[in-house]
Amino acid sequence: MKKITFLLFGILIFSSCEDWKPLELKIDWGDKPQPLYESITMKPIPGKESDLVEKLKEYNSLYHNKVEGTSAFLRFIFSGKDSGKYMWIEGPMDFNYVNENLNADGRDQYWIKNISPLIVESKTNFYRHAVPLSVFSKKEITPKAYRIIGFKFFNDNGYERAKANKIMYKFKLAEEAMESGYSKHIFYAHEVIPGDADFYVVFPLKSIAEDDNWDKNENNINDWEELASKMEEMFGDIDLIWKEWDGLVYRSESHTRIVIE
Predict the structure, then answer these.
(1) CATH 3.30.70.100 spans which residues of the chain?
(2) Where does 33-128 sit in CATH, by number?
(3) What is the CA angle 214-135-152, rounded to 5?
(4) If you count Cβ atoms within 10 Å of the first and of the last residue's Cβ in the chain, which end, N or C, has fewer?
(5) pLDDT in tens, 17-56
(6) Is the overall model pTM greater than 0.85, yes or no?
(7) Domain 130-261's class?
């Protein structure tokens, strides 16, 4: 009788496992385009770095930071791809804002006269902040640096992008469920620039010293182990999820940015 009871119990467990399926996920993108950011990456003429920063700050005070909720700011690429270059970034905004400011009096003339002579080369692109895929920490910090990892699609089509988005959304839900305490933001490039990633994962840091313990939370517990456990609990075999991810994208670049006050 006991053997029959255990056998039936085993069959019940096996049937439950067979019937178990991860939740069907639907990403809510909202009814408006995702927030837009403009980024200009510049390589300064050697010896002109301080002049460039000074002129960019003056440019921002004259022609930007006039609309509430939209800011222009500066970053220095400390290490990794494009290290030694500077970035001018403005956002969040939309293309209507960009269009309205294209012909602002004196703006282009100031750039041509005061900034262009200080740089060897530059590139411009726009990026969409994929808010539904991003993780926002409940603990407010003032970032002093950012760790950026770029990925490219093996096949950049709508179908594979949707599958990658769904995986990133699963990670977002798991990270929020475990209350990781850190932020993580996803940005998609608007234009395809040869050599650049298709999308970026951005981690705000209190300082670059946080890279010493990037894999641990404030309690010195390995976040990745806890995250993998939470992913399995919510969505099934983590190895199968990683296998699907590795079939969609590959890591193409990384760098660390320092905030310029």
Answers:
(1) 33-128, 130-261
(2) 3.30.70.100
(3) 75
(4) N
(5) 444 455 568 999 999 999 999 999 999 999 999 999 999 9
(6) yes
(7) alpha beta
Residue pLDDT, tens place only, 215-259:
555 544 457 888 899 999 999 999 999 999 999 999 999 999 999
